[in-house]
Specification:
Elements lengths: L2 H7 L13 H4 L1 H6 L11 E7 L4 H13 L7 H11 L7 E7 L10 H21 L3 E5 L7 H6 L7 E9 L30
Antiparallel strand pairs: 1-2, 2-4, 3-4
Length: 198
């Protein structure tokens, strides 16, 4: 698949089959992620591959975090929400948690650039999955950045979970996407005076 075609045709796909993803396919995803650019070659990404019952602890921690914002976790409404939260990691046969561990070995390293490198790794993985015939989507939200999530994945104080990538074989055809006209976000600056109109 041509790279430009892959970029334009990739879509977030949550409707995936329970069918396991073969290990030889799984290995290619973090491998693709590891080829993202990183300033000073720090390679600050960390990948945690969850399959089978390896997804269960993630569900348990999501429940613990959800309980913290509930007035009464034992109420009928809360219990139903918690039951749904517990099985979220089972929405796909493969979940890859992606985290950043900013380098502590180089004083020139800027944390935001470490985050940027990991976001680039995530995009590499999403594109690789698409090229391998997988459907996938990237989930984030407040629970991802909670200290309990950091503890679950053994991250340092500076480390952060930046997302959960859910992958599986799609149940249906991926719909075509659309984007705003590029004129809404691109400005051509061909001369110094062009900056006066920004």
């Amino acid at each position: 698949m041509d790279v430009i075609e892959a970029i334009r045709s990739r879509r977030s796909m949550g409707l995936v089959k329970d069918e396991p993803v073969p290990e030889e396919v799984i290995h290619q995803l973090p491998e693709a992620g590891s080829w993202a650019p990183s300033h000073f070659r720090t390679e600050p990404w960390r990948f945690f591959v969850l399959t089978g019952e390896g997804r269960k602890p993630l569900g348990s921690v999501l429940v613990e975090i959800a309980k913290e914002s509930m007035d009464d976790p034992s109420s009928e409404t809360s219990r139903k929400k918690l039951e749904k939260t517990l099985v979220k990691p089972y929405r796909a046969p493969l979940v890859i948690t992606v985290a950043v561990e900013p380098s502590a070995d180089n004083s020139k390293v800027i944390d935001i650039e470490e985050y940027g490198a990991v976001y680039a790794a995530i995009q590499n993985m999403l594109l690789a999955a698409h090229g391998l015939g997988l459907g996938g989507f990237w989930r984030t939200g407040q629970p991802a950045y909670h200290r309990k999530m950091k503890e679950l994945f053994g991250l340092s104080e500076k480390g952060e979970v930046l997302g959960f990538l859910y992958f599986g074989y799609p149940k249906r055809e991926v719909p075509q996407g659309k984007r705003k006209d590029l004129s809404t976000c691109v400005k051509w600056l061909n001369a110094e005076k062009d900056f006066e109109n920004l």
